[in-house]
Amino acid sequence: MIAFLRGRVFDKHPNRIIVDVAGVGYEVHVPLSTYYDVGDAGAEIALHVHTHVREDALQLYGFLTSLEQVLFERLIAISGIGPKLAIAVLSGIDSGELVTSVQRGDVARLTSIPGIGKKTAERIVLELKDRLRDVGTVNIDGAEQKTTGDQLRDDLLSALENLGYHRPLAEKAVDAVRARDDAAGFEAALKGALRELMR
After folding, report:
1. Cα–Cα distance, 66 to 17 (Å, whole number)
2. Does residue 24 register a pLDDT over 90?
3. Would you say domain 149-197 falls under CATH 1.10.8.10?
């Protein structure tokens, strides 16, 4: 099983990174928090990896911090939550805030994550509350990735679609945010678009 990868970013898209390790490209699915912070193509990268094996596929899920990996693995242990939904959860809420929300039983905050309904949020709180007492929170200060023009818009739309939003709604939110602040980087613009969509 692959547990760790160190190499260079070969290519990146929201929720997916290709890591070049000695000439071999590994496709790794990642939450948006990791996507923002890994740097551009050519940057050195080290990821904690969860190898997910199914009958028809072997998929890698990567995380910059061990906390994200722990949260991911505890989420997928919950009945009804698979890797894709677990990545969506980690993309929709900061790791530290997820731990705090679970410990406080804040179902409303969890249901604000795209793809998480009330029953799923309640199940997350019920099943993880006692299992997260040993998990410390961390503050991830990642450098904001700045891109310009159509590339930024495409990246934002792709990220929102991966989170479950329909393209017309995503386009409206992205355009509203960029009209207010055209100089915003990816992370700031994405957070603004998510706020627009939650109104």
Report:
1. 18
2. yes
3. yes
Query: Which CATH fold topology does 4-63 show?
Result: OB fold (Dihydrolipoamide Acetyltransferase, E2P) (2.40.50)
CA distance 189 to 185: 6
The residue ranges of every structural domain in the chain are: 4-63, 67-132, 149-197
Q: Could you tell me if 18 and 25 are in contact, meaning their C-beta atoms sit under 8 angstroms apart?
A: yes
Summary mean pLDDT of the chain: 83
Q: Which two tokens stand for residue 113?
A: 């994550």
Q: Token match 């613009």: residue?
A: 189
The residue with tokens 């009330």 is 118
101-133 pLDDT per residue, tens: 888 888 999 998 888 889 999 999 998 887 776
* CATH number for the domain running over 67-132: 1.10.150.20
Work out the pLDDT band at 141, boundaries 50, 70, 90: very low
Residue 17's alpha-carbon distances to 37, 64, 115, 132, 137, in angstroms, are 12, 12, 22, 28, 25
